[in-house]
Design a protein that fits this description.
Blueprint: H1 2-10, E1 13-14, E2 18-19, H2 25-34, H3 47-87, H4 92-117, H5 119-133, H6 144-150, H7 153-171
Antiparallel strand pairs: 1-2
Helix pairs in contact: 2-3, 3-4, 3-5
């Protein structure tokens, strides 16, 4: 559980206190796997490594959704409804609604504590650590990969954010 809590907390979300202002856990976990997105044709030959990356990607998505549900409850309850309830004390429904979100977040937080201590998350953390330590995303025949991996993160971040924005803009009506 400690390792899972550290992973999630390091990603910008604390199971104990809720969202941190910088980045949600789901996004950070996804970015970890998006780093391998620009594969060369030689990378396709490394099917076992690629299938392991896909499996870990699916597990990261699942874990991000699980943590995201608590984040959503915290954000709606604490950042949206509670401030409105305090601004408009003459509206008793807002305070009651905020309390419902607070109670649901507490229940979800307890469920997440159990989930993070469970076998599935622990197996994911061990497999993910092994994948990182053994550099499972690398393709030995792809010599250009070393240069791409060594590139400053700011270049990758800018490219990844631009790609996200393009996707967002094309998806919006």
């Amino acid at each position: 559980m400690l390792a899972a809590s550290a992973l999630v907390a390091g990603c910008g979300y604390s199971i104990e206190t809720g969202p941190e202002p910088n980045m949600t856990a789901a996004l950070q976990i996804r970015q970890t796997f998006d780093a391998g997105a620009g594969k060369s044709p030689k990378a396709a030959a490394a099917s076992s490594s690629e299938s392991e990356m896909k499996r870990l990607d699916a597990e990261a998505r699942w874990l991000g959704q699980e943590v995201g549900s608590l984040r959503d409850l915290d954000v709606v309850g604490n950042d949206m409804v509670r401030p409105e309830a305090e601004t408009h004390p003459d509206e008793p429904g807002l305070s009651a609604l905020a309390d419902v979100f607070l109670r649901q977040a507490g229940e979800r937080r307890e469920q997440l504590r159990k989930l993070l201590a469970g076998a599935r998350v622990q197996a994911f953390l061990i497999d993910f650590a092994r994948f990182v330590e053994t550099r499972g995303w690398l393709v030995p025949e792809d010599f250009g990969q070393t240069g791409r991996v060594a590139a400053p993160v700011i270049e990758f971040a800018g490219h990844a954010l631009n790609k996200r924005w393009k996707k967002t803009l094309t998806a919006s009506p």
